[in-house]
Amino acid sequence: PLEMSAKKPVPFLRQVVSVTKKIHRDPRFDDLSGEYKPEIFLKTYSFLDSIKKQEKEMIQKQLKKCQNMEQKEKLHQLLNRMTQQEQAQKKQQKLRERELSLKRQQRELAKQGKKPFFLKRSEKLKLELAEKYTELKKSGKLESFLNKKRKRNAIKDKHRLPSQKNL
């Protein structure tokens, strides 16, 4: 046994035997869990999309039946959030497909013996914007989109100008 001095008080919670600490590991940052590949992840959990679709339909039915205004508002917010998540997922999928197609093109050019050329971020954004405009033109919403953009820019410009009071 360990000899303790009588001069100083013994701590209230004295450790007699050292306890081994549990090591908590986070699978997101641990090498044991493997490498994250979004394509594999989406294939593995693709069944969740059908479940989400069923839940969305169920919420829409509940929204039609609901009489309570507070409950109706909550359901409406939930439905909006679900649709926004769905749209974001589609947008992400499009972006991923675009990147994959660019990679394929680069690989083919490399096979032909040409030096690979990687687009800058600004160039990617320009391509994305051009694609967005063509999509809006097809759907016929281009004019309304441009009007909204003009209004937004006008408001920004108005805020940047010095006020009449200062002159």
Give a short summary of the structure:
Residues 94-111 have a biased composition (Basic and acidic residues). The chain is built from five helices and no strands.
What would you say this structure looks like, in words?
With 167 residues, this protein is mainly alpha-helical. Among the domains are: 31-115; 116-146, no CATH class. 64% of the residues lie in helices and 0% in strands. α2 (47-65) runs antiparallel to α3. It starts with 37 loop residues before the first helix and ends in a 7-residue tail after the last helix. The model has no long low-confidence stretch (mean pLDDT 89). It comes from Eurystomus gularis. Residues 94-111 have a biased composition (Basic and acidic residues).
Percentage of residues assigned to helices: 55-70%
Please state the structural category. Answer: mainly alpha
| C-alpha termini separation | 87 Å
* Order of H and E elements: HHHHH
Uncertain segments = none
* Beta-strand share of residues: under 5%
Number of E-type strands: 0
Task: Describe the sheet with the most strands.
Answer: none
Please, how many helices?
5
Mean pLDDT: 89
Rg result:
29 Å
Shape, principal axes of CA atoms: extended
Subunit structure: Associates with 90S and pre-40S pre-ribosomal particles.
Keywords: Nucleus, Ribonucleoprotein, Ribosome biogenesis, rRNA processing
Region (Disordered): 82-114, 144-167
Pfam families: RRP36 (PF06102)
List keywords for this structure.
single chain, 167 residues, mainly alpha, nucleus
